[in-house]
Amino acid sequence: MKTKLFTIFLFCTALYFGFTSCDSDDDESYSKDDIVGVWDLVHTEFSGTYEGKEEVWSEDYDYEYRIEFLADGTGVDYEYYNRRWNEADEFTYTLSGNKLTINFKYEQQSAKIVALDNNKLSLYYTLKEGSDYQEWTDTFSRVK
Q1: Most CB atoms within 10 A, among 3, 58, 110, 130?
Q2: DSSP 3-state assignment of 13?
Q3: By three-state DSSP, how is residue 96 classified?
Q4: Is residue 2 domain-resident?
């Protein structure tokens, strides 16, 4: 009987630690040093509703939007037109754990970093207004 109870105890303990260890993957923490650089938008996955109508799409990009994060917590985003990169807006940003907040002159955007390495940055956004919602993931490729 003691052996059976001990086996059940070990099994429950293993389950507990197995489930709780997964939580750390969801709360990845990053520093400004990790995102400093120039990033080109390469892909967007979108789903949401607007006035009750469902919309789902994905799109690949080539030389359309670029964002640069500087080490001092500021940055610049660019749009590509007339065969060159043109400054669109300056911003400040903060990074806390995996939450990136970008403060443009007239708006603030908050995103969850869902992937980040030397070459790839993926940001997940959500927006809810009334009964409408939008969620999308922007994937960037590091330029420098």
Answers
A1: 110
A2: helix
A3: strand
A4: no
